[in-house]
Design goal:
By secondary structure, the chain is an alpha+beta fold. The protein is built from four helices and eleven strands. The chain has a domain of 133 residues: Nucleoside Triphosphate Pyrophosphohydrolase (Alpha-Beta Complex). 23% of the residues lie in helices and 37% in strands. Strands 1, 2, 3, 4, 5, 6, 7 and 8 form an eight-stranded mixed beta sheet that branches. A three-stranded antiparallel beta sheet has the order 9-10-11. The mean pLDDT is 91.
Length: 194
């Protein structure tokens, strides 16, 4: 599946958001395979971070001037937050940029294959928990609830994924929704309807 995803992304042009007044950031969507079962790693942010306190997110953060690329930003932040070594990640491709509505970020998401098992080391200032969710579970219709929110006077679909009492929402859920549609397309299931 990883080679299929890499081929798919190599032929796909991601949508970029170029609003210059937004904070530039990047995240990694880390995926691993355990005996043919694919999983995504999420983090739960602590209440000590400056934004999105306590929320479930993908590892990542704000671009640093020393980062050569946004992929480097995502990898560096992964290392800082959960101890995932940059060289352990095989970047499969890039998703569309995802703007945040309240905190005014542009998030560039990268999909990366990681080895398993892997010994993570959490940064206790930034990460309170590492959450491991099977992709099969995320694709189950009972896992997702759709809602709406008003952004700049326009209704926007909001997604909520619930797993073992944890709620994935906001920009993370929008990135996840985008990825899962691609996953299904690559796997041959076709796009899920929104």
């Amino acid at each position: 599946m990883f080679s299929k995803l890499k081929e798919y992304f190599s032929e796909r042009q991601p949508v970029r958001v170029t609003e210059t007044d937004r904070v530039i950031s990047a995240v990694l969507v880390p995926i691993y395979s355990d005996n043919g079962e694919y999983h995504i790693i999420f983090t739960q942010r602590t209440n000590k971070v400056s934004t999105h306190k306590g929320q479930i997110s993908f590892p990542g953060g704000v671009r640093d001037k020393t980062d050569a690329s946004l992929a480097d930003t995502a990898l560096r932040e992964c290392t800082e937050e959960v101890g995932l070594a940059c060289e352990a990640v095989d970047i499969l491709g890039q998703l569309d940029d995802c703007p945040t509505f309240v905190s005014h970020f542009i998030i560039t998401p990268f999909v990366g294959a990681i080895p398993w098992p892997y010994e993570f080391t959490m940064n206790e200032m930034e990460t309170s928990e590492i959450i491991d969710v099977p992709i099969r579970t995320l694709l189950d219709e009972t896992c997702r609830t759709d809602g709406s929110e008003i952004v700049d006077g326009v209704p926007v679909t909001a997604y909520f994924y619930i797993y073992k009492g944890k709620v994935i929402w906001g920009a993370t859920a929008r990135i996840l929704y985008q990825f899962l549609n691609i996953w299904q397309e690559v796997a041959g299931y076709g796009l899920k309807s929104s």
